[in-house]
Amino acid sequence: MFTLFGYVLEQNETDPAWWLERVHPDDRAAVESFFYEVVHGNDLSWVDEYRFRCDDGSYKDVYDRGYVIRDADGRAVRMIGAMLDITPRKRAEEALRQSQQRWKNLTEALPQFVWTARPDGFMDYGSAQIEQYMGCTERELLGGGWLAMLHPDDRDRTQQAWQAAIEAHQNEYEIEHRFRRFDGAYRWFKTRGVAVHRHHRRQAARRGVAAGEGGGGGGQPGEGRVPRQRQP
């Protein structure tokens, strides 16, 4: 006899039918199909994740790995495996997904442009307003692509200030520059960023906003304007 997720089973109760009956109904067809595909094929191992019903009626997320023992003719004669409860990991992943979705919903409700960057300065997120305003895709913006959207006269000094902030591990970054709108017009923006320290003080991701004059989507074309930048 052995205990499994609250069950106390006799040896003859551990056949595939007993197990499949307790796989969540929404997962069962896919799990069963993959399981028998491996059993009737040539593979020597099987791995899957699904929800499994416990003796008390609740479901747990499991990571299931099995090794197929085959006879001389290649027929499966036995499978030895183990089921691991991964419910805490799944819950943590879902909590993270919900947190990221809330962050995205918030950033896309703001009039400013919101962005994040990795510790090496690679821009890894830009809010939807940026794409709409500049008339480009997210792929074109990420990494260092956003620099191409700057006025040619502002591009070099912006790149130099950004690189200096990264290399000096500055906690704050602030600069004024012009971004190209979807219709080709350039508008002034004030871009601010702050370091977000995680595991190591010297390795910080960055989050920031870019706001035009009035706090929204860009000021009037700034001929004759003197740009300011601060690098604390």
Helix-strand blueprint:
Blueprint: E1 2-4, E2 7-9, H1 16-21, H2 25-39, E3 45-53, E4 59-70, E5 76-85, H3 87-107, E6 113-117, E7 123-126, H4 128-134, H5 138-141, H6 152-167, E8 172-180, E9 186-200, E10 203-212, E11 229-230
Antiparallel strand pairs: 1-2, 3-4, 4-5, 6-7, 6-10, 8-9, 8-11, 9-10
Radius of gyration: 28 Å
Largest sheet: 6 strands, antiparallel
Mean pLDDT rating? 84
Beta-strand segment tally = 11
What is the helix/strand order?
Answer: EEHHEEEHEEHHHEEEE
Q: Just give the CATH class of the largest domain.
A: Alpha Beta
Task: Please tell me the total number of domains.
Answer: 2
Structural class: alpha+beta
Give a written overview of the molecule:
This protein has 232 residues and is an alpha+beta fold. The chain has 2 domains: 2-85, Beta-Lactamase; 97-230, PAS domain (Beta-Lactamase), CATH 3.30.450. It contains 6 helices and 11 strands. The protein has helices at residues 16-21, 25-39, 87-107, 128-134, 138-141, 152-167, and strands spanning 2-4, 7-9, 45-53, 59-70, 76-85, 113-117, 123-126, 172-180, 186-200, 203-212, 229-230. The strands form 3 sheets. A 6-stranded antiparallel β-sheet has the order 7-6-10-9-8-11. Strands 3-4-5 form a 3-stranded antiparallel β-sheet, with helices on both faces. A hairpin with a 2-residue loop joins strand 9 and strand 10. The longest helix is centred in the middle third of the chain and has 21 residues, at 87-107. The termini are far apart. The relative contact order is 0.09.
Keywords:
single chain, 232 residues, alpha+beta, Beta-Lactamase, 3-stranded antiparallel beta sheet, 11 strands, 35% strand, elongated, disordered C terminus
